[in-house]
Amino acid sequence: MAYKCNTIPLSADIFSLSIHPTKPLYAAGLLSGRLEVYTWGSEEGEAAKEVVVDGDENYSLQWGTRRYSESYIFSAGANSLLKLADANTGKVVSKAYIPLLKTLAEITNGILSYRVEYPSVITPLSTAHLLVGTDSGRIHLYDVRENSLTRPAQTWKKVHSDYISSITPLPSGGGGLSRQFVSTGASTLAYVDFRKQGKAIISSEDQEDEQLCSAYVSGLSARAGRGGEKILVGNSSGVVTLWNRGEWEDHQDRINFSKSSGESVDAIAALPDTFLYQNSEFGKFVAAGSADGKVRIAQLGSNRIIETLQHSLTTEEVKGAVASAGLSVDDEGVGDGVTELGVDCEGNLVSAGGSTIKVWYWDEDAPASQLLGKSRKRSPDETDTDTDQGDEMSSEEEEKPLKKNRRKKRKGGTGKAKSAGPQKFSNFSGLD
């Protein structure tokens, strides 16, 4: 295998991972209520840095870059409070409560009661807007162009019958701010237009499997008048389904990642255009993380698995390996699945699960015949045989509402990174 990894040990199990788009920074929201931000040193021997935020009980977090100069990080957790903090200092810039839910069934002595609404996912729609999905199936849109968070600018109610498991923005055809996105929850996918307030524009047919994660891919071959844009959705049966942009009623193709093992696909990430495998032509690749601790990489088009990376071992694998030696194994930390995947600013694949983040990099000492993950830029005269026609569907176009049917429920690069290991450079509190 041509991949090696640097490992970042965490102080508790990770719930959410966010990767800075332009810097080697990795933010982890932990089940202990801490938000930890790590970076690797740029030179050998230079200490890596860590920023720690206490007391937020983070369920989800996301980077946000405002005004193209200052970097911020958004977080939300069990206190139902959305926070905007400076990613470098941890200083909270603004806070806002996620709207409470009216619970008509809980009227006591004629008084209408309200229930706290818990966030399940945070995603920036653009540099101007932030999306927050909740456990009740709602999606709130916040305007983050100002220095303060206020009430949501828009809310879509009951987009899904269960919690929002993922939100994926759809790029604008004209290169402007994104106005459309898809979400997954329960057993459906939904398409929502930023300009259409109060309802999901299109909801898919029941997929008969819990939809857990999603990713956007462009630049695929365009056939039969279809654009080269797809949404990839991982589900509880170990399959990733492929959806053509604009055809939201049902998926058009599928890739079996871990169906044979019965493990769900809990995380998915589209790999950069510079990703290569062995001596193959340039193509599109996608990574999927499963509950068995494995990251499987597939090439789109052929839809076949080309490589498997081991983020963690299952209990059975560890016990089998030590049984012959007559040893016992501590189950703690064993069997942690892959819950988060991403790509950092250097094109390295990043996996997270349990109390570990792994940054995968190309092994420069590997045989030249192994090119898995080796990233190189195209020469000016290299072009794809197929053109990307994803722009033919503009965000200004109306997409036809399709009939809504009904379908299951929730789950609980380039260059070697140089580092002396993660070390703290700052601690701060007072986030609440």
The proportion of strand residues reads 35-45%
CATH topology name of the domain at 2-12 and 92-363, in short, is Methylamine Dehydrogenase, Chain H
CATH-assigned homologous superfamily of the domain at 2-12 and 92-363: YVTN repeat-like/Quinoprotein amine dehydrogenase
Radius of gyration: 22 Å
Please provide a brief summary of the model.
This is WD repeat-containing protein JIP5. This protein is an all-beta fold and 432 residues long.
Would you mind describing this structure in some detail?
The protein has a domain at 2-12 and 92-363: Methylamine Dehydrogenase, Chain H (7 Propeller), CATH 2.130.10. The strands form eight sheets. The chain has a five-stranded mixed β-sheet, with no helix packed on it. Strands 1-30-29-28 form a four-stranded antiparallel β-sheet, with no helix packed on it. It has a four-stranded antiparallel β-sheet with strand order 6-7-8-9, with no helix packed on it. The chain is 2% helix and 41% strand. It has 432 residues and is mostly beta strands. InterPro entries: Quinoprotein_ADH-like_sf, WD40/YVTN_repeat-like_dom_sf, WDR55/POC1. Residues 403-413 have a biased composition (Basic residues). This is WD repeat-containing protein JIP5. Residues 371-432 are annotated as: Disordered.
